Amino acid sequence: MFFKIIKKILIVLEILAITFLISFFILGKKERIGNLAITGLYVPGSYSNNYIYDFKVEYYTDIFRDSDIYGVYLSSNSLPDYIKDIQIKNGIRYGRLISNEEINSKIDNVKYTLKFKFKFLSYMIIFIILSFILIFSSKINSLFMKNNICRIFEIKYLWITIIFLSSLILPNIVYTMFYKHFNHENLDNRNFNKYPNIQSNFIDFPKNYEAYFNDYLPFRNELIILKKI
User: Which of 12, 90, 106 is nearest to 58 (CA)?
Assistant: First the structure.
């Protein structure tokens, strides 16, 4: 009986996860309008006839923007003719552009699309696969039909699995959906770590990833504020 309840819960979560992925994938593919805010000017000698600017993408929406879920990708066709080249990596909102004209204000009406970030997509796929296994595996079902000890063990196992997966996914979703309501200042003056490259440093990857994860932990500032109370 308990297994049937858990199975129904997992089926509902599976449907919600798949629906969420499909819906937000389609919504992310839609072109939206933003602007490029200039944050700095660089004029290296090799580009003496051009202007090189650092910029950040600004949005008119609080949901469909770069986040833990989405990466932002600019549409080059929407850029003014005086922009010769633009560089933006890994879907982040910051980049660099080369212009043959001086830019003194924001560049308006820039179109962009959104794509799922690899890390978020990986979490969702893992959750869907594990849920699928738990729902349709006959071995798990047979284990519940043995004795009470096995049943208690398996019940605990299922709850631990569900809680663990929820702790990985739900905080990021909540934090992203209500991003504007949280504090994003660098309260402890950290030097933020970049995402580690597993190919260049395989041995230290777990340690480096832990440092990166701690820097970009959802609700980090809220936890810091609570510690000071």
Answer: 106
